[in-house]
Amino acid sequence: MTYCVGLLLNEGMVLLSDTRTNAGLDNISTYRKMFIFEEPGERIIAIMTAGSLSVTQTTIARLREAMEDPESTPETSILLAPTMLKVADIVGAMLAKVRSEVEEKLSAMNQLASASMIVAGQRKGGEMRMFLIYPEGNFIEATEDTPFLQIGEHKYGKPILDRVVKRTTSLADAQKAVLLSMDSTLRSNLSVGMPLDLLVIERDACKVDSKRRIEAGDESFRAMSEAWSLALRDGFTRITL
Amino acid sequence: MTYCVGLLLNEGMVLLSDTRTNAGLDNISTYRKMFIFEEPGERIIAIMTAGSLSVTQTTIARLREAMEDPESTPETSILLAPTMLKVADIVGAMLAKVRSEVEEKLSAMNQLASASMIVAGQRKGGEMRMFLIYPEGNFIEATEDTPFLQIGEHKYGKPILDRVVKRTTSLADAQKAVLLSMDSTLRSNLSVGMPLDLLVIERDACKVDSKRRIEAGDESFRAMSEAWSLALRDGFTRITL
């Protein structure tokens, strides 16, 4: 399982992903689920992945191949695509293609291989945009009303986002919000696990503002998690029925 | 969809269920999902249901028939069963039987009909016990380590329970906890809806201590929900990253 969340705010974008991958309960590994493609000042694209690792790895690898291909065009390379909408299109088409290839291989076993992605970014002169790409390649976009997108195990971490995240939330608060959302998920679902990858992109900078890997023993994450537990229990105590 | 939660505590038991039933998104109704069978001072049994309404209604109706049957035995009537374990057995067997009958009817349509239940109660002289009955009729029991059971849409409301509910939680705090757990669920999933049924059973009383239906406009529930939102936002503000 996986939990990835992306926030699209007035000040910029905040993305957070876990790294746990499992094939059954007894085969657990760490794989990066956040991929960054950047031409600083010109273009920044971040992709987060959830679902079958064979599908997501191959999709990302093929997207990379297309970028590095000297004959790549705005139709094939996300680094040349004229708009973020076109980027979402390219990623969606590749994801759907890879997924159907993998499912064909698995069809004899009656197994499915599904995957979804969050694609976020901005091109100089364009808008900051964030998309959730479905396994079939179609997608939806974060908006003013719903400024966050989630993939993977999204339910445990949604209540906190529903309550505190607005389009006007600051980037500092947004980082707190996604980390607390992840914290609730980590507590409830063993198949979501540390380390975490946290990315902040400021509006119109078209480059990584900060990128941080939070390891299992991270002191500030632990302190925040404990402070939040304390705040919840404290708030709980003060409420009267 | 549905959300039902039961807490098994040192002081007693607290049960909460919603009432929304839907067949598709455009056919929404209100049905009670909590059923109480009581011989005050002798025996109290509460059953909460989730899943296909045709399965849960028929299961409850057959259990009632068995209780009212003048020839009922400790093997067939949950009001005569010698232990709560036997009650769980009887409910589980009936649920599995009804489910398989209904699924047979649906098999031509390639549809499944599933349902699960929480069975909680105490018999004079016996222990207070709480079971989660699976669609196949097998069951698990709430324990010291895990003093709560949930059926239906359980994920949104689990983080708060994980954080505040212990076996030693008071009945007053337990009511707050389940209502806040429900509040998070109501906000995130439209297929869980008011009114709510809240039941409190004190240890060894073997009768209903309090039973309350909380309607959609309930002032105290609304106030609690708002106080909780405020406490969360307040706690969130005070945390530093």
Automatic annotation (TrEMBL), chains A, B:
What Pfam family does this protein match (any one)? Answer: Proteasome
Protein name (record): Peptidase
User: Which Gene Ontology BP terms does the record give?
Assistant: proteolysis involved in protein catabolic process
The organism of origin for this protein: Neogemmobacter tilapiae
Membrane-spanning parts: none
Gene Ontology terms, cellular component aspect?
A: proteasome core complex
Q: Which SUPFAM superfamilies match?
A: N-terminal nucleophile aminohydrolases (Ntn hydrolases) (SSF56235)
Taxonomic classification: Bacteria, Pseudomonadati, Pseudomonadota, Alphaproteobacteria, Rhodobacterales
List the InterPro entries hit by this protein, alphabetically: Ntn_hydrolases_N, Proteasome_sua/b, UCP009120_prtse
